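Dear H.,

Thanks for agreeing to be a second pair of eyes. The structure we're designing against is below in token form, covering all 215 positions.
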């Protein structure tokens, strides 16, 4: 009986020990699984490829994005500056062209006014010279020329020379001086004309030339 009681106590002790070991093993296994499932943070422990990729995305992603945005902003700024410079250059060129055109127009206008002024002065001078000449004397001197040149000065002398009417007083005066000097022989009438003007003075030639120009 005493021996049986001892064996029963030993059996109970073994059962308690087995239960304790089983409980300890379950708790260890649960702790291991919990440790495995716990998420890893950047820089803590050794990460696998997936963890490294995720960590890189979290740790370096913001920096890369900021760098790209800064580069794009700088590129846009350069483009805007270039466009501004081109626009400014275009406006400057247009302004210079406009000023140059205005300056040329002003010069042309002044030149035209100067030419008109010179023409007016020349006409006035010619009128003054003609008015100073006694046209009555010129008419009287032309009487001996009318036989060949016509009373109105529109006849071609000997059918060869040009009509004296309509020619300028200066040209006619030059021609008459040439005939008188014997240096002009237009249409072979140099000798004839020299005889006609040989007795004329410079004042007579001026007067008859002025009269013929007015025919």
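And this is the sequence the design step returned. I haven't edited it by hand at all.
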């Amino acid at each position: 009986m005493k021996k049986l009681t001892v064996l029963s106590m030993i059996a109970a002790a073994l059962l308690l020990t087995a239960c304790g070991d089983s409980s300890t093993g379950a708790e260890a296994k649960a702790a291991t699984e919990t440790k495995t499932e716990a998420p890893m943070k950047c820089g803590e422990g050794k990460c696998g490829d997936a963890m490294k990729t995720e960590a890189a995305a979290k740790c370096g992603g913001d920096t890369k994005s900021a760098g790209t945005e800064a580069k794009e902003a700088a590129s846009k700024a350069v483009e805007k500056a270039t466009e501004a410079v081109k626009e400014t250059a275009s406006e400057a060129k247009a302004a210079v062209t406009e000023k140059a055109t205005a300056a040329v127009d002003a010069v042309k206008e002044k030149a035209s006014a100067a030419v008109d002024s010179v023409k007016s002065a020349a006409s006035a001078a010619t009128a003054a010279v003609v008015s100073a000449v006694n046209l009555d004397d010129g008419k009287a001197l032309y009487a001996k020329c009318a036989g060949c040149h016509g009373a109105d000065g529109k006849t071609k002398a000997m059918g060869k020379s040009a009509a004296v009417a309509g020619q300028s007083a200066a040209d006619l005066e030059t021609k008459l001086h040439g005939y008188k000097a014997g240096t002009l022989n237009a249409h072979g009438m140099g000798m004839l004309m020299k005889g006609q003007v040989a007795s004329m003075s410079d004042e007579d030639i001026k007067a008859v030339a002025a009269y013929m120009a007015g025919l």
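Two observations from my side: The domain at 135-213 is CATH 1.10.760.10 (Cytochrome Bc1 Complex; Chain D, domain 2). Residues 49-132 form the longest helix (84 residues).

Warmly,
E.
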